[in-house]
Write a structure and sequence with these properties.
Number of strands: 0
Distance between the termini: 43 Å
Order of helices and strands: HHHHHHH
Helix content: over 70%
Number of helices: 7
Shape: globular
Length: 113
């Protein structure tokens, strides 16, 4: 976590990948790994890690948000919509969730127009 917080997400991801192999059911390790992957611009891998969290515990709003943001960054705008909508529905008080959903909706409308 110190590596992630100090701006070394790639190094954090390398260590957290080993930790996730050793403790595959640890949500906190998986979330830290997903964050490190996202911050390392390894968006497809981050999406996979966030998806594992969502599948294991579908009440994790942050995992839905991370999944949606990761998919968005891979260019899968349509795939990003649902997890962002779920995150925003679960936590409408978090402006960054709502803002991300609005942006994805706008992009989808623009594509359809």
């Amino acid at each position: 976590m110190k590596l992630l917080e100090s701006g070394s997400p790639a190094a954090a991801a390398a260590l957290l990948e080993r930790a996730a192999q050793a403790e595959p059911n640890s949500r906190s390790i998986r979330e830290a790994l997903a964050r490190a992957q996202f911050n390392s611009r390894r968006y497809a891998e981050a999406a996979d890690s966030f998806r594992i969290i969502v599948d294991a515990n579908p009440v994790e709003d942050y995992a839905y948000f991370g999944l949606g943001m990761s998919l968005w960054r891979t260019g899968d705008i349509e795939g990003a919509y649902e997890p962002l909508a779920i995150a925003a529905a679960m936590r409408p008080d978090l402006q960054h969730y709502v803002s991300a959903l609005r942006q994805v909706r706008a992009m989808l409308r623009a594509r359809r127009a």
